[in-house]
Amino acid sequence: MNEHVRHANTVPLISKERIEERVRALALEIRQVYAAEPPVVVAVLKGSFVFVADLLRALGLDCSLEFISVGSYVGAKSSGAVEIKLDVSSDIEGREVLVVEDIVDSGLTLDHIVGLLQAKRPKRIMVATLLFKASAFRGAVKPQFIGFEVGPEFVVGYGLDLDGRYRWLPDIHVASEVEARGSPADK
Hints:
Blueprint: E1 10-14, H1 16-34, E2 40-45, H2 49-59, E3 64-74, E4 77-86, E5 96-104, H3 108-118, E6 124-132, E7 145-149, E8 155-156, E9 172-175, H4 178-181
Parallel strand pairs: 2-3, 2-5, 5-6, 6-7
Antiparallel strand pairs: 1-9, 3-4, 8-9
């Protein structure tokens, strides 16, 4: 059934069913690349936690999992400065690495994360993102695995939030309340 959960301040954009289907397809693509050497999966917290859990189950590879947490947002606006709140705890030198993001907007936060990880001398870094804002992208590192391209609207649900809210929504929604606060800055 293609029924969205409704919330007063959001407008449904991508259904739970479409997300599930796309995650399975992404897992097949990623499995082909990493079949011989499963990667260290580095999930970017907090927004990617739902996506990475579903992706790992669909991958079916014996991947190790690490977390990294960065901050640059206050509400829907970027502060412009990327702060590392949590770094990976295991040694990734010489290892395959797959960074898993919830959304890539401008790509500047992703550039910072990849730069930090490259300093640890992995064999290779690739990036999977659930959502990609191609029209906003101006970074150096483009994700190799993209779930959906989305427009400039601020989106929530399936782990993505606005001030800590809406992560519980099973679908991706446009946060209509952002319009009243001003346009969102890109991540």
